[in-house]
Specification:
With 236 residues, the protein is of the alpha+beta class. Helices cover 60% and strands 12% of the residues. The protein has one domain. The protein has a 3-stranded antiparallel beta sheet. Helix 2 packs across helix 3, helix 4 packs across helix 5 and helix 5 crosses helix 6. The longest helix is centred in the N-terminal third of the chain and has 41 residues. 23% of the residues are buried.
Length: 236
């Protein structure tokens, strides 16, 4: 009996040990992936043109907050994100050279840096959401005859358009701030300029889920329209 109990205890301990090692391996892999990204970003060095553009901003009074990378580095980082290619069956084109990120920049003024930064981020997201939703709606209206809508879900095309605008805005999550600089105006206010990069892979996944939730059976047809819009308008 004692031997049986002993074996059972050993088995339980072994199971927890294996699980612990497995979780440790997963955590280590995540840390390595994060470190790999950091290392790649740290390898970025501004080229001659990027340094020249940074000097222009500096002459205009722009600087960076304490702890932030230089303006030249931020410009190089922005270009780095612009050059990242999409590897995804949802957006993959014949040349397989589709940019992975959509960028948006904005400038805002406020009494504090944080308030101006928040306002600029909000405007940048709203701007890109408006552009994308407008393009989607244009594609939708061009092909509206092929999209059958359920009257219980969407009473009119206008209502569908408003839903698509809302879904596009909600789907723009996890924007990466690739640039942030500021200058003071004559009234002592902070003028902050930021640049955000949105991952199209995340955007498309979010939109697919939200369309399914809002439109049910019609979601697949609507997602085809979204995908066609992204292929047509956001491949460069």
């Amino acid at each position: 009996m004692k031997k049986l109990v002993y074996l059972l205890v050993v088995a339980v301990i072994s199971a927890f040990t294996v699980q612990s090692f497995a979780q440790s391996a997963i955590d280590l892999a995540k840390k390595r992936n994060k470190l790999s990204k950091v290392l790649k970003e740290n390898e970025i060095k501004p080229n001659k043109d990027e340094k020249k553009l940074a000097k222009k901003y500096e002459r205009e009074g722009w600087t960076v907050p304490v702890g932030e990378k230089s303006i030249a580095y931020q410009i190089a980082m922005s270009n780095y994100y612009a050059d990242q290619e999409m590897v995804d069956e949802e957006l993959e084109g014949e040349d397989n050279n589709i940019p992975r990120y959509i960028s948006s920049s904005s400038t805002a003024k406020a009494g504090t840096y944080n308030m101006a930064n928040t306002a600029a981020r909000t405007t940048a997201q709203a701007t890109i959401a408006s552009l994308i939703s407008t393009d989607i709606i244009s594609t939708l209206t061009d092909t509206n005859g092929n999209v059958q809508t359920n009257a219980n879900q969407v009473e009119s095309l206008d209502e569908m358009i408003q839903e698509l605008k809302s879904i596009t805005n909600q789907s723009l999550t996890g924007g990466v701030q690739v640039g942030a600089m500021y200058r003071m105006d004559e009234n002592g206010n902070y003028e902050v300029q930021i640049r955000l990069a949105y991952d199209k892979k995340i955007l498309m996944a979010n939109m697919k889920k939200k369309l399914a939730k809002e439109f049910g059976e019609e979601a697949d047809e609507l997602f085809d329209i979204v995908r066609e819009t992204m292929r047509k308008n956001y491949n460069q």
